[in-house]
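Quick start: what a row looks like.
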Amino acid sequence: MDIQPDDVFMGQALGLAREAFELDEVPVGAVIVHEGRVIAAAHNRCEQLRDATAHAEMMAITQAAESVGDWRLENCVLYATLEPCIMCAGAILQSRISRVVFGAMDPKGGAVGSMFNLLDDARLNHRCDVVSGVRADECGAMLTEFFVGKRQLGKK
């Protein structure tokens, strides 16, 4: 059986999303890969840090910049279990990430195809290659499970 690298790295992001779920954070995980090696791995930490910017992608971008010693993350691939939002898409562009692979679409907040397509906007100074739908069923199922549980508890 030939396992594609995108599936493997998305599996790592799914593991991080599960960690977030267990911490009562929205279950999103992200990893950043450079030359076939994971250089950053994070999950959402908004609740834990009381910080609206503590999305998995943002945390991973900060870690990756520290790892390579530069804010420019050219030749890096970001794997995220959920389509990045406007904030995260902006950070992806600013950090010059070359490729983005994500799982589930986010029809209410996605900025990489659902509501907007910021990573392929010719008006901006950088564009990314994008692959969507990698392990989308697993990514989406975890998010659904999380939010169904929240609704049953009467929480947001």
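That is the whole record. The chain has a mean pLDDT of 95. The chain has five helices and five strands.
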